[in-house]
Write a structure and sequence with these properties.
The protein has about 200 residues and is of the alpha/beta class. It has helices spanning about 5-10, 55-70, 80-85, 90-100, 140-165, 170, 180-185, and strands spanning about 20-25, 35-40, 75-80, 110-115, 130. A 5-stranded mixed beta sheet has the order 3-2-1-4-5, sandwiched between helices. Helix 2 (about 55-70) packs across helix 5 (about 140-165).
């Protein structure tokens, strides 16, 4: 399949500036949910670009500055754990994505959103858009957004590992691994834990 198919379809419909948007960190027990929005020049070559989940951490780190350099515009945004607890994760994901879109130095005419949801209880995608299931593995601009969101979040969690070393956030990035649950049981939650996610402690 053409990695630019969805962008080309949107351009064919008359949209000049098409942006890809994705989020990272919906599932973890700790830390913010991050989102990125990326406008790429149509057909630009970024060797090795793929859905961030299919890439190694090392490969994502290599791609991160390449995407930033080759993108016409890019933006990263996040919603803190406290806000996730106060609303819900779906709303937080939508808000993070819309914040990333709003953060672009040029407003896009049309947005390709990874996934099948565009609204939560308290937030929704307001820019003209299309949802694409598995979009981050089907579209270059959504793949680029997935890498920027994932790397940005991982870097934040590594910083949190220095602030809260007992939780080993550098190891699991806040996800509910066996190690993370063991440390939570030993130390209890810290300020960046999502209290609403800690049901089975």
């Amino acid at each position: 399949m053409d990695f630019w198919q969805y962008e080309k379809e949107a351009i064919a419909q008359g949209y000049a500036t098409v942006c890809g948007c994705d989020e990272a960190g919906a599932g973890p027990l700790a830390g913010p949910v991050y989102a990125a929005a990326v406008i790429l020049p149509l057909g630009v070559d970024i060797p090795g670009l793929d859905d961030s989940k299919k890439l190694t951490e090392k490969r994502r780190e290599v791609l991160f500055p390449v995407i930033q350099e080759k993108a016409l515009h890019w933006s990263v945004a996040w919603v803190e754990a406290k806000e996730i607890d106060e609303t819900d994760i779906l709303s937080a994901r939508m808000r993070a994505m819309q914040l990333a879109i709003d953060g672009l130095s040029q407003a896009p005419d049309f947005v390709l959103i990874d996934g099948n949801r565009d609204k939560g209880k308290s937030a929704c995608i307001t820019t003209l858009h299309r949802c694409v299931v598995k979009g981050d593995s089907l579209s270059a601009s959504m793949a680029a957004a997935s890498v920027l969101a994932k790397v940005s979040r991982d870097r934040f969690m590594k910083k949190m590992a220095e602030q809260y070393p007992e939780y080993r956030f550098d190891k699991h990035k806040g996800y509910g691994t066996k190690l993370h649950y063991e440390l939570l049981r030993a130390y209890g939650p810290c300020p960046i834990h999502r209290r609403t996610f800690l049901k089975n402690l």
